[in-house]
């Protein structure tokens, strides 16, 4: 590397001069002084030469970074962009190789020296990125454009073993164009996960055969496969043979490679080549990371879907074989819906019972009626007890009357299906004719002997199967007995279970696989054994401890449980056939997740459109194409026919409302959000002279598995009438406030004059007794009118302003209550007003004016609605965290029908009161509002015996 250092120092002046001349053509240097263009370049080149000659010590690296930072900060101050700064270092990286093209061969730097130089320049460009903080807007737009193009080229499925060149090469060529590179090669790992084979090459119609590349080897591709970051090789032409292992393009001078790494597993390597030798800017590496990550997801999804299609094809063939086998079974199968009491029949009903399935009654009563009378009560009681209990199965043997009126003996076995609460939903069972067996059990010794012979034959055949099926290419096991002992298990099923052979043979299933307890395996095996019906389970979910650590993991299997009968194969038991489809199921679940979301949304829209006169839309967000039904087109004023894009439809929305609608749509489409959209907006009338229409839009954005918004569906409702009603209500409220203003201003002033006048008249000594009484009546009437106006003002403020304001302050409540009671006694000296206060003072934070108003209203109410010869009592006491005020009076109780609304405005306790004492009916409403403003509660009880009591609870604080 000394040659590089010597070359830089010997040509330092030439390099600086050429850099200044070339940089003058850059937009970022326009208007700068020569010293500002050159900046720290001479010192920077000295430091780079020292690093290449003596190595990268901390002191040299720190000095290099200070010089870089000074240069970059200068560019920041003059308004240069990140691209301008990185272009200057890239320009320097091109000028140095141009100088040594004419040098003598012995003076040309070596590949290692060039690598050192380009490494310093690349780190300088990384420094630029850090200081300028990331991508530019143009880079992001360009990135999105190429990702959309990759989506358009993505294959839906790639079958295992298929030729991938034709399907994958267009995407690799697109990445080459995006990177402005010369070409690229794509390698994918084989099934073993170690060897990488070429699958696409931009310079060949078919990928060159070449030998596989070891992902753990020393080659450039092997190093890329083990690196988390993109690897760059700026001098690829001089590579050793082992470093070029697997690469076909010999004309590339610079290589940039990155591994495909979906789900934390190596999928392959993409290598991009450039014809010229050059440093690789950090934004180029970052752009490649984005493209390769997207390509990894596309290939991963396509390969999984290909495997899923292949597995489904095999599964369909397997299902066909088992369907034909089940049709050949000799049982009668029945399915009883416990909610509707309907029963459906299938299987060999004609041979066993003499009836065709369509001749058998649709209700369970038909089956009960044909049970032999001596067995009917026992059977019916037993099956209902099983359904109402917690059993998973029911079985009974009884006599059944067939079409010819004969009593045949049947064994009826059923499985009870329950909901999450344990309630029975369905009962599925099978009838078997066991007449012959019953006769054997009751004295036919010959048949018993034949049965023993068949058992010996079964054991012999089981021994033979043990040697034959151990070599079967599929996962097989045979279970025998009520405990389902594993009598045979080949290596493949042991691999699926994650157990050695000695751990499963001769053991019950739940002893060999204890972790599946509670996962329904035992119940399903019992059902197969009891009914004799095969069970075919597609994508059965099981949690097994297959890892060495014993941790449970999710697995999906295609399982077939085929009952074996002595009469048919010489063995009594269950044949288990299994194959694992975990990866295929997970791929399909991701695909079905989107379909389920879309289906649920469509169902909601359908119900909404059926229930109301709504219009609907369905928009493809990637293209803006929209499907608008006729009602929504009419609401928005869209043309009745023809395609209308989203941008075109937005032109019909009022310009003042358009930005709000667009914001609501953007929020709904934000990744990670709820996807819900709601907005109200105005639209231009479709014809001149018509009023403006208001539309309420509700919708939902659906996202792809990778989080991209793909579809926007919703409904629109014409809410013009509602908006008009709201406007009318608003105008009414303003009018009410206007009336209250008249009351507060135009009535209170003359009433104040009347009150002052009467007070002045009462002070005159020459008034006769008759005139004094008249003036007192005028004064009382004026004061009552003032109270009514005050109540009206408080009522309006409570209704319009959301409550009454309170100004709390520290006070002693007992003293305030005593003062109010004394004032009320002066206005009603003829009444007996009793007061009960605690010995200790009650201090707290309350509004004294509002509490006074509350007490006057409650005491005035009690005096008004009680006989004059009865007392009115006021009690004050303290409870934890609050004080309690009770106002009690005797007399007629409040009507039960009035009690629930006694605190509503315009309500009075007794109709037809004397005109002199009537009010506007707002007193108790204002009392409740004052109590709530203090954070308290108020209740009332009223009976003929106990009288009427209002109870107020006020907290010490929280007003």
From TrEMBL:
PROSITE patterns, alphabetized: HIS_KIN, PAC, PAS
Domain PAC: 394-446, 677-731
InterPro entries assigned: GAF, GAF-like_dom_sf, HATPase_C_sf, HATPase_dom, His_kinase_dom, HisK_dim/P_dom, HisK_dim/P_sf, PAC
Catalytic activity, as annotated: ATP + protein L-histidine = ADP + protein N-phospho-L-histidine
Domain PAS: 318-390, 461-532
Keywords: Kinase, Phosphoprotein, Transferase
EC numbers for this chain: 2.7.13.3
All residue ranges annotated as the Histidine kinase domain in the record: 742-958
Pfam families: HATPase_c (PF02518), HisKA (PF00512), PAS_3 (PF08447), PAS_4 (PF08448)
Statement: the UniProt record of this protein carries the keyword Kinase: yes
Molecular function as annotated in GO: phosphorelay sensor kinase activity
EC class of the enzyme, as a word: transferase
Protein name per the record: histidine kinase
